[in-house]
Write a sequence for this structure.
């Protein structure tokens, strides 16, 4: 029986490429025939990206992140945070503002922060007159510890799911933005996560921050040497890029800044690549590409070549170790490549911006093998890229054939209906290139697999099988004769009453009988 391990003979070739280096791991779908832009959460094909995103960010696609210091929580006694009423909130704010000792003031803010972990306390706090003004005053004080605790209180508020809480934080956002140019990496990280949470919740916050220069501030932050700051920046930027007004009001500014070239720099493979940072900025790049504001700019900055090299590096990494965590990075990288390949500008961009055919195809199949074993929900992402690679490129189709990758591809058919449709679509891309390609597809296990897919109860799977058989019979008449000998007509008969398939079934019957 054919084995997906056929692709393993390409691993040495891939790993020997000069640009493959070891990782230092720290901590709108279009027509299947032509490719198409694919946004997050697209329904064709479904993906496991949502589940991966949930595992990483705890909640939804556009989600909030809560930054807490577990060690500090334990040091504070591990007490269960109590819901605070108006009297307690006023007491802690008064102590924080007027206490005689700095430690006493700091402890008051810690108690307030712990209480603000409860939605009930948050609601009481924002409706209490003067509370936010007092907290902002502490945030802007000249005592670093009080500033930090006040920022942590704001961070707890920013994590609220209620837009009223986010809008109540509006007076603090200008200061949080200003502090991004500070010297404390811990404080900058906290400000970035807080801003990221507020941005996604409140349009009023965004309206205030945009003219105040949030994009230039983020562009300055991206040159930070601190990985924790970069990861927090990637999160905040990804939140900003997902809001509804991003294509019109935000992404043009981002593209006009230095952010794109720095994002691509942080995605370049090599010993300095940090997985957490790369994951955040790969999603940022994905949102920018999906906006279709100016993808030719990204291509001109070397977006295709950078992503292609990163794909090769990921394939090398999964060959070296089983536990890489790269499935989190694979999803946005595959989508970025898939969507950039749909650009018409691809035809006029040459040289270093083009992908290396055989390396990319070999790397993709190594990743497909990895997904099959470790993360099957990502198979559609890899196959969508393979679809876009082969849709308009005879050379990529030739690579599939020359590396004997048709049988490993066919072995994915039983995984799911979505996977089956994509596999069949890729094979249609190859077959439609003409007689020479169909001759290479034939003979082999293809026909018996297609007779099997014709028995599927899924109309889309059957429909795509009919398309592939029609191309095959047209360019390789021997396939039609073999189809008749294997009782193919009897298999077709079961679909004659399907309204969506009748015309194609009849056409295929006629083609088979008259070859």
């Amino acid at each position: 029986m054919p084995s997906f391990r056929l692709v393993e003979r390409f691993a040495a070739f891939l790993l020997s490429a000069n640009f493959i280096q070891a990782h230092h791991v720290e901590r709108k779908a279009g027509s299947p025939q032509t490719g198409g832009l694919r946004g997050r959460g697209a329904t064709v094909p479904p993906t496991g990206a949502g589940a991966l995103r949930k595992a990483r960010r705890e909640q939804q696609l556009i989600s909030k992140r809560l930054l807490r210091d577990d060690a500090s929580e334990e040091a504070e006694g591990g007490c269960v945070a109590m819901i605070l009423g108006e009297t307690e909130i006023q007491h802690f704010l008064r102590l924080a503002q007027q206490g005689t000792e700095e430690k006493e003031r700091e402890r008051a803010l810690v108690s307030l922060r712990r209480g603000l972990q409860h939605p009930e306390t948050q609601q009481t706090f924002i409706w209490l007159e003067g509370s936010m003004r007092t907290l902002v005053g502490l945030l802007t004080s000249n005592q670093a510890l009080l500033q930090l605790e006040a920022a942590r209180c704001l961070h707890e508020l920013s994590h609220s799911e209620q837009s009223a809480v986010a809008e109540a934080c509006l007076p603090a956002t200008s200061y949080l933005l200003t502090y991004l140019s500070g010297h404390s990496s811990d404080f900058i990280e906290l400000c970035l996560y807080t801003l990221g949470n507020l941005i996604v919740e409140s349009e009023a916050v965004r309206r205030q921050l945009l003219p105040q220069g949030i994009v230039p501030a983020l562009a300055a932050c991206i040159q930070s040497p601190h990985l924790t700051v970069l990861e927090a920046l990637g999160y905040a930027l990804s939140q900003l890029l997902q809001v509804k007004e991003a294509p019109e009001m935000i992404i043009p500014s981002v593209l006009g800044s230095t952010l794109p070239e720095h994002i691509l720099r942080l995605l370049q493979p090599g010993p300095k690549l940090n997985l957490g940072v790369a994951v955040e900025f790969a999603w940022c790049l994905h949102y920018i590409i999906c906006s279709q504001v100016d993808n030719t700019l990204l291509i001109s900055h070397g977006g295709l070549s950078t992503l292609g090299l990163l794909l090769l590096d990921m394939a090398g990494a999964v060959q070296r170790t089983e536990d890489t965590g790269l499935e989190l990075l694979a999803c946005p990288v595959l989508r970025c490549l898939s969507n950039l390949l749909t650009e018409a500008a691809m035809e006029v961009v040459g040289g270093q911006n083009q992908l290396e055919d055989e390396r990319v195809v070999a790397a993709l199949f190594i990743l497909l093998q990895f997904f099959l074993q470790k993360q099957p929900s990502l198979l559609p992402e890899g196959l969508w890229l393979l679809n876009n690679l082969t849709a308009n490129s005879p050379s990529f189709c030739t690579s599939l054939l020359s590396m004997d990758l048709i049988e490993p591809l066919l072995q994915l058919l039983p995984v799911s209906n979505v996977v089956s449709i994509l596999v069949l679509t890729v094979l249609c891309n190859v077959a439609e290139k003409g007689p020479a390609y169909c001759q290479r597809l034939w003979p082999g296990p293809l026909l018996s697999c297609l007779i099997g897919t014709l028995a599927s109860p899924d109309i889309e799977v059957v429909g795509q099988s009919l398309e592939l058989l029609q191309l095959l019979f047209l360019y390789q008449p021997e396939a039609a004769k073999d189809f008749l000998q294997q009782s193919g007509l009897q298999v077709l008969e079961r679909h004659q009453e399907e309204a969506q398939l009748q015309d194609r079934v009849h056409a295929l019957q006629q083609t088979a009988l008259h070859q």
